[in-house]
Amino acid sequence: MSELSVSVIQVSYGDDEPMADRIERVAALVRAEKGQDLVVLPELWPVGGFDVKHWDERAQVLPAPGPVEATGAADRAVVEAMSAAARDAGVTLHAGSTVERSAQPGPEGKNLWNSAMLFAPSGDLVATYRKVYRFGFDSGEARTIEAGNELVTAPIGPFTAHLATCFDLRFPEYFREGLDAGADLLVIPAAWPMPRREHWRALLRARAIENQMPVVACNTAGTHAGDHEMGGASTIIDANGSVLAEAGSGQEVLRAVIDAEHTARQRKDFPVLAARR
């Protein structure tokens, strides 16, 4: 099979929803997508996309790739709930990202990371990705968490996916690295705000067109950390840059089918990538 049926769950939430309630609600949304191949969630949905002051207390411990043991620990709540939801739905689940607490600090002396999680239909954790490009310049994420330093690709059905997160989108050279590593699909969760929503739309299409690869992008909805309105507009784009589905500003589930054979034909019929120097 060359086709991949995709669901993108654009989660909406506010500051008044307890983290435990949100985890339970989102797990139910994932289970409702049973029958799909890939389900994608937004960036930082468990802990609050801009709710930096609460990240340390809400941080999670992520296990090594493999089967996920049920412990019931509060700092494992996200990974255990998402593992169970992926298994119950029988889907590959990109669970967006959460704030990870590591046992050892990184180069800047911090032990918090913005980490994405990919689960197999068995519920096994098969890949994690620590966000490379941190947003905030001299505040927020850039000050609070460590920067990842590894490009991560993972097989998803007939595709090889490049895993990236939100602000990474602004750095086109990073996606050329993914292309050179064999990627033919970009999966990118985000907590992208409303004031820069048109940047989000333009950059997603640009990444699809310039790399001739489908893009599955899951943004957040709602208002976080008091006054940060999220932009929504989650999108599924094919390798020709055509928008297959796009969400509005509220909570919504997008569904579309992307085709690896279509991607291969685009690269063969318009061989722009072969002209790189």
Secondary-structure map with pairings?
Blueprint: E1 3-10, E2 12-13, H1 19-31, E3 38-40, H2 55-58, H3 77-89, E4 92-101, E5 112-119, E6 125-130, H4 141-144, E7 152-156, E8 159-163, H5 172-180, E9 185-189, H6 197-211, E10 215-218, E11 221-224, E12 228-229, E13 235-237, E14 243-246, E15 252-259, H7 260-269
Parallel strand pairs: 1-3, 2-11, 3-4, 8-9, 9-10
Antiparallel strand pairs: 1-15, 4-5, 5-6, 7-8, 10-13, 11-12, 13-14
Helix content: 10-25%
The neighbouring-strand order within the major sheet is 6-5-4-3-1-15
Mean pLDDT: 96
The DSSP helix count reads 7
The total of beta strands comes to 15
- Find the structural class using helix and strand composition: alpha/beta
- Which parts are unreliable, with pLDDT below 50 for 5 consecutive residues or more? none
Oligomer: single chain
> Biggest sheet, open or closed, and with what strands and sense?
6 strands, mixed
What does the radius of gyration come to? 17 Å
The shape is globular
Order of helices and strands: EEHEHHEEEHEEHEHEEEEEEH
What fraction of residues sit in β-strands?
Answer: 25-35%
Q: Report the span from N to C terminus.
A: 33 Å
